Amino acid sequence: MKTSVSSYQAKIKLPELLRQVQLGKSFTITNRGDAIADLVPSAKLPRDKSVSIEKMKSFMQADPVSGVDVKALISAGRK
Asked: Which residues make Cβ contacts (< 8 Å) with residue 34, sequence separation at least 6?
């Protein structure tokens, strides 16, 4: 859900709004009550780590990787 913020509030609190957007929150900027813009996280912005961890856990349970030497893969990547 997006939180509405007046254009004046967006102007004076932009750094704080950007910090919150970086954490995944979205805002709708209004001018005299009319929505004029949305301030949303970039598609390239890394998402919450807990979501990624849960996706990885479910992947590992659904399609377990067996017979893979993780240390060898890590070492190969460090060349």
From this structure: none
